[in-house]
Amino acid sequence: MRVTFLLLLTIFFIVVQKSLCDPLVLIEEGITEYFRTRTRPGYLENSIREALIRTSSKLGEDGMHCALCRIVTKIVIEYRRAGTNNEIIGDIGKDLCTLFADIGYVTCVGYIDLTIDTFVFIIDNKPDITPERFCAIRLQEYGCVDPNYVPWRIDLPPGRSPSLPRRPSGQTTSVLHLTDIHYDPLYQPESNADCEDVLCCEITSGIPKQAIHEAGFWGDYRPCDMPWQSFENLLSQVKNKHRIDSVYLTGDIISHQVWNTSKEYNQLYITQVLEKIQHTFGTTPVYPILGNHEAHPTDFYPPNSVEGDFSISWLLDYVAEEWSRWLPTSTLTTIRQGGFYTVLVKPGFRIIALNSNVCFTNNIWLVYDDVDPYNQLQWLSDTLLEAEKNQEAVHILSHIPPGDIECSQQWSHEFRRIIER
Ligand SMILES: *[C@@H]1O[C@H](CO)[C@@H](O)[C@H](O)[C@H]1NC(C)=O
């Protein structure tokens, strides 16, 4: 009797003490224990929930999200360095993902299966990686700080770029700008539009609980992508109602089913969409660029130095070939180098098509090497100087907007220096 009472009292004090503790301390203890014992301690879920509810961190402020990110990253790096294998890190990662993020179980499990080897490769091959660096890049939108960050610079030509005299020709041109088509081959009308994952309205999204949750025929404003019939209909409307002189196709043909991408299927759907556009508009020139969703895994654009399984050549070589239905052979070299190119559309007017997906903060390869990936910005500066000498006006196409909170600050900064020269 007495012993039981004492025991209960002790448990009571431990519980009270734990919950009075800073949730961050508990979370660090809990995750460390998770990695050591491979069993999630009971209090971890609540501590995480509490930390996320209590968080006052706003966008652009190094607060709770950054602190949590650094804790998790530090433990993962430590345990990997001590020899923990990909499978164990992946399994704990999946579980923590479902606790921390609201992207749903299916997305967490599938996306981590696709990406765990990349994460581990980066930890293994980047001996000076720090939690500060990882979080400052990945959670830039929360203003996470890396005090040891070393900025890099693009060599700009001396002087300032003169403004081009305006010479109105009296002619107009009409450009069809297509972007973020996100064609979903698995879209299913009347499927569940109200699911837990990042993408719904698919055969696998479950059965809708009520009629109001059913996916529409042409698409749905809930987290759903575009069915083929809507894309077809869109193109035929444009074709029948407008005169189109050229098409800017600025990326993200692939759907948001990020947990189930593959090189083969991404290639298949890219070709399917490009063929449809070519078939619709005939000889009208099309200027395509890459989106973050064309990569596999989604968002991952590794630098040229990365070879083998992780290399991005499969995509760059593929689009070099696919885009050649519209682009001259002079574009092949830079497309194969990094997915960017320039074309003189007519005397005095040039297009520069970028692969700005390298700057997207979801592109984890920025942690590995963020110095002007593919030498693209240096090339941009050089190409603009040539255009300047030839008195050309230029349109720059880009999928991730430079200056966006999710585009690497350093990349945006150098882009801006180039543009503002
Ligand atoms: C994964 O993607 C492929 C290609 O789109 C598709 O055939 C397959 O049904 C998908 N699997 C699931 C579970 O959605």
UniProtKB/TrEMBL annotation:
CDD domains: MPP_ASMase
Coiled-coil annotated spans: none
Disulfide bond found in the keyword field: yes
Signal sequence, renumbered to the chain: 1-21
GO cellular component term, pick one: lysosome
Domain Saposin B-type: 62-148
Domain of life: Eukaryota
MF (Gene Ontology): acid sphingomyelin phosphodiesterase activity; hydrolase activity, acting on glycosyl bonds
Keywords: Disulfide bond, Glycoprotein, Glycosidase, Hydrolase, Signal
Swiss-Prot/TrEMBL catalytic activity: a sphingomyelin + H2O = phosphocholine + an N-acylsphing-4-enine + H(+)
GO biological process, one term: ceramide biosynthetic process
Sequence similarity: Belongs to the acid sphingomyelinase family.
Entry protein name: Saposin B-type domain-containing protein
Organism expressing this protein natively: Photinus pyralis
